[in-house]
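Internal QA ticket QA-208
Title: Verify multi-chain structure generation after dependency bump
Assignee: T.L.

Test input:
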Amino acid sequence: MMDELELLKKDWKQNDDFKVFSNSEIYKMLHKKSSSIVKILFYISIAELLFWIGISFIPYFSSEEFQEQMELMYGSDIVLTTLNIFSYVVIALFIFLLFRAYKAISVTDNAKKLMKDILHTRKVIKWYVIYNLVMAFTALSISLFHAFHDNPELSAQIEQFNTTQLFIFTGTIIVFIVAFVCIIWLFYALIYGLLLKRLKRNYNELKRLEF
Amino acid sequence: MNFYRLSDSIEQSFVEQLQKHQNIVHKVCRLYTNNKDAHNDLFQEITIQLWRAYPKFRGDSKFSTWMYRVGLNTAITLYRKKKRRIQTREFNAVEFKIKAEPYDDTEDEQIKLMYTAIRQLNDIEKALVFLYLEDKDYREISETLGITEVNARVKMNRVKKKLRTIINP
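Actual output:
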C-alpha cells in the first residue's frame, strides 16, 4: 500500500481547482486596506501615546485658577520642573523607539524573526505604559504633598482630623491610586492579550524547537 | 518615462506574476482557514502584504519562492481570524473536494482522514506539512521558519508521526 503521506501529497498536487482570480480582481485587492495585527498594533500605540500626552496636558486646559496654581507649583519646585522636562524627553525617546521597532518589522523575514520583532514592538509600548503609571503615581504623590503642605486651609483641616478620619482619608487616596493603576493595567492586558495570543503561542512553539 | 507610468508598469508586472502563481496563495488559505469567506479574506491580506513587500523583492530568488515566505508569514503571524464559527464538517465538504480515484474507497477515505488530521495541527505544524507537500527541502524550510535545518528535520519527522498516529490510532 502507498504511504499515507505520499498519497496525500499526490492528492494535494492534483487538488487545485481553486477559484482563479483575474488580473483586475487582484488589482482591486492591492488597494484594499490591510487588517494585519501590525497595523492594529500601530494604531493602538499611537492612541496610547496620544492618551498619555493628553493626560499630561489636561491641567493646561482646565480653569485659569488651577493653571495659576500649577505654574506656582512648577515654578517653585525644582523636582516638578525636572520631572516635566524629563517626561518630554521620554516621550520623544519612546516615539523614536517605536518608530524604529515598526521599521524593523518585515514580512519578508523568516517567521521567527518576524514574530520576535512584533513582540519587541509590544514590549516598547509596555515599557511606555509602565513608565507612565510610575510617573502618574510619583506626580500624584508630589502634588498631594504640595497641596497639603502649601495650602494652609487644607493642612489645618487635616491636623484637626481624628485617627479614624485620617485613616479613611489616607485609605481613600490609596484605593483611588490602586484602582487607577489596576484599570489601566487590565485594559492594557486585555487589548494585547487578545491581539497577540496566537502570535505568542506560535512564537513559543518555534522557540521550543530550538532546544 | 514619468514616475506614474513606471509605477503602473511595476504594478502590472506584480499583478501578472501573482495571477500566474496564485495557487500558492490559495493553498496557504486552504490550510489556514475554515470557509470560503475566510479563505478570500486571507487571500486578500496575503496579496496586500505581497504588494507592500514587493519593493524589497529582489530578482535573486524566484517570485514563487518569495511568495511562500510572505504567504506563510501572513497566515501564521499577521492575519487576524475574523470571528466566524463554522463547523469543521462544513469546511471539509466545501473546501476539500477530494479528488481521489473514484473506484478506490480506501484511498479516498484515507485522504479525507489525512486532511481532517491536518486540521488538528497547530499553525507551525501546518506550515511544516505545507512545505513538505510543496516539496521544499530542509534548507528552505529552515530559512522560511527561522529554525535550524536539524530542528526542521526533527520537527518534520514528529509531525509526520503525529499525522500517522491520528489516522492509524
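Spot checks passed. The mean pLDDT of chain A is 83.
Status: verified.
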